Structure formats: C-alpha cells, structure tokens
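Structure in, sequence out. Go:
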C-alpha cells in the first residue's frame, strides 16, 4: 500500500490527496497537507451544489483530526469560497469536515460517541478538548443526523412529560415514541407554547395520525393535545392518579394526627406519626410490623382506615383495567362521594373531571412508564452534561443517547 493511501486511511480522509506530512518541532503536532479531488472541488459548503469560485478565502486552514498515537494531528488544506445560487458566498465544502467546523468528521463522531458511553472526565482527558467544546460538537452531530433522518415520521402512540434539568425551575418538555421507546423531541420549557412547537414541527397531517397520547393530568398538555390531535385519545398516567389518592390519604392522616395532638392524646399522635409508610406502601410490600400498624389503625381510627381502603381501591382500578376496571372506578366514585372524608370527596371531583382520560388508560393499557424511564436516563445525562452552557447541548446529548442518533465510532459500521 502506498504511503499516501496509508495516511489517508489513518486520518479518515479517503477521497482526498495527501501532499506531504510534517512534524512541527520535536513536540509539536503532526500536520498533514491535503487537497481535494477534482470531483469534490468548488462545491457549496451547505448544499454541496457545484458553484463558481469567488476567491481564495482566508487561505490555508487547519482541522483538528484524531490523535495519531500520542501526537496531535491536523489536516491542512486550501479553503476557497464559492458563489452558491442559493446560499450566496460561502466557504467551499470539504469531505472530511462539517461546514464551518474546526474538527474533522471522525473527530466529531468520536467525541459524540464517547460523550454517550463514557464519563465527562474521560472524554476531556482522552481527546484533549474542553468540555464546552464537547457540547458544541454534540449539538452539531445531532443537527447533522436530524437533517438526514426525520424522527417524527410514523408516530402513532406518544408520551409527553416534563423534567427538571436545573435548579431554579428549569424544565424540559420531552416526547417519547411508545412503540420504539426513543426520545423523539425535547425543548426547554413546560407550557403550551413549548409543546405547541412540537406539533408545529410534526405538522397537521402527521398529528392527525396520532392515536394515543399518554401524559399526567397537566391541563396545559390536555389543551394542546386536544387542539392538535383530533383523532387521539389522551391516557392519564396511572401512577399520577394513584399519587393523588396517596396525597389525599396523607392529608387525612395529618388531620387526625393534629386533632389527637391538640386533644392531648399523645400516644395516639405518636402512633399516627409513625404510620405514614404503612399507609403509603402497597400491601404486598408491607413488613410484619407495618401490617400490625395497619391493623391498629383499623381498630383505633375508622375514618383513616377507610381513607386507606379508598386509596387501595383506586389502585386496584388500574390493576383490573378494561370493563372491570371502569366498573370498579364507577363504584369507587360513588364510595368516595359518600365517604364524608373531605380530601376524598374533593379527589372524587378531580377524578370525575379527568374521567375520560382515566377510562382511556383502562381501555388502552397505556401509561407514562416508558417516558419516566427516559426521564431517569436524562437525569443521569444531566449530571454528565454539567458545565454545558445551554439546555440545547443537554438536549443534543439526550437525543444522541436516547433518540437513536449516536454515530458509530469511525471505521466501524452499524450491524
């Protein structure tokens, strides 16, 4: 194999001609001078259209390449400008780098792959690049991948949720495809305008093809889905609905505890204060001591025990699902309305208001569990991404790792 081809293969610039190689000083970088093949010259850096030359630009330019062994390596080539009929005067395209970037494609793809699969410190140390630069590289790799693949095509069942990514009430709204399990869209914010941007990107035709949407009971999500998805059923996440009942139960427990404390019943107040987890936990997960605590509550305070049973029956609604679940939900609503327990009377009103979404969940069996799993992984990525200046870089990292946009390592091919 000729030496020129060896250098081309090592640097990942096959298709260009290596003119010469030099080592700048004893400890300096390796600089490989290259020129384009005739077929690749004078093309617009944005659309790749062959265009007439404009000028020589700023002369010779360098691109950071992957290290060769322990030595930094750079590609050096002319960077003329061309006049594109669509984009005007732009720097001509080069096959080894993305337009306007100072790193080769191989370098960018390696950084992106490592950012997903290794720690922050490993990426910085191995590739000798600042962490903020990693954020910029990840963002452009994702933008390049999105340009060649529309992840919003074919959506039928989606999940919508929000996740806090930073202190100070900083949130991301995320959309997950239930069928593939992939993150398909994310943006900073958690309001109607933010979610509306997703449906604008989706377009009316594809929005009309969506059949099921899972979400919590946030009213702003319901309004946007109703406006943009005329054929979709909104399924309320069972975890959030049961959480309402758990909150109502804890409110009842605190009321009983406060009444006992004010009435001088110190022993009763102490026992109730230690009963929180026995009331919260699912029956199958209770310890023997917690089962004993529940038995004591049943004998000592009948209203609190009824509140516990109401919480458990609402949980059983989602365990049954289908027609049986809807029948039990109707029975639960009748019981809660007649219970004379203020927190559960109010909860019955809330459940009635959201009954259509709850019944859709019982029929379709769709929850936000897959979305919550994606959110858990985003929280991990948030720790890795610490130091990125904007949520855009975190979103790009999430799309790489969870959206199927991570490129293979240079020289490998996806199976």
């Amino acid at each position: 194999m000729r030496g020129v081809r060896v250098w081309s293969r090592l640097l990942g610039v096959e298709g260009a001609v290596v003119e010469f190689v030099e080592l700048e000083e004893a400890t300096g970088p390796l600089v490989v001078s290259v020129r384009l093949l005739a077929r690749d010259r004078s093309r617009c850096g944005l659309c790749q259209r062959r265009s007439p030359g404009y000028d020589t630009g700023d002369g010779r330019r360098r691109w950071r390449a992957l290290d060769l062994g322990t030595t930094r390596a750079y590609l050096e080539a002319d960077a003329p400008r061309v006049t594109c009929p669509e984009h005007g005067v732009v720097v001509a395209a080069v096959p080894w780098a993305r337009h306007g970037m100072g790193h080769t494609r191989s370098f960018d793809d390696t950084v992106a792959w490592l950012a997903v699969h290794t720690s922050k410190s490993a990426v910085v140390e191995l590739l000798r690049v600042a962490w903020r630069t990693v954020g910029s590289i990840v963002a452009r790799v994702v933008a390049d991948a999105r340009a060649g693949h529309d992840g919003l095509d074919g959506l039928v069942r989606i999940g919508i949720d929000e996740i806090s990514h930073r202190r100070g009430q900083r949130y991301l709204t995320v959309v997950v495809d239930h069928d593939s399990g992939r993150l398909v869209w994310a943006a900073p914010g958690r309001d109607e305008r933010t979610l509306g941007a997703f449906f604008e990107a989706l377009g009316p035709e594809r929005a009309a093809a969506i059949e099921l949407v899972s979400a919590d009971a946030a009213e702003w999500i319901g309004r946007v889905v109703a406006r943009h998805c005329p054929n979709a059923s909104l399924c309320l996440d069972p975890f959030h609905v049961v959480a309402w009942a758990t909150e109502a139960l804890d409110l009842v427990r605190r009321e009983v505890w406060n009444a006992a404390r004010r009435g001088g019943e110190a022993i009763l107040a102490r026992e109730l204060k230690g009963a929180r987890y026995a009331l919260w936990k699912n029956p199958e997960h209770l310890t023997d001591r917690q089962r004993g605590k529940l038995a004591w509550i049943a004998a000592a305070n009948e209203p609190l025990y009824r509140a516990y049973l109401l919480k458990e029956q609402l949980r059983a609604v989602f365990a049954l699902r289908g027609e049986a679940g809807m029948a039990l939900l109707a029975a639960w609503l009748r019981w809660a309305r007649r219970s004379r327990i203020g927190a559960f009377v109010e909860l019955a009103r809330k459940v009635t208001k959201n009954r259509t979404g709850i019944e859709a969940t019982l029929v379709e069996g769709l929850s936000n569990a897959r979305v919550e799993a994606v959110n858990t992984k985003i929280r991990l990525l948030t720790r890795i991404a610490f130091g990125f200046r904007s949520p855009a870089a975190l979103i790009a990292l999430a799309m790489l790792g969870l959206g199927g946009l991570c490129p293979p390592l240079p020289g490998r091919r996806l199976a």
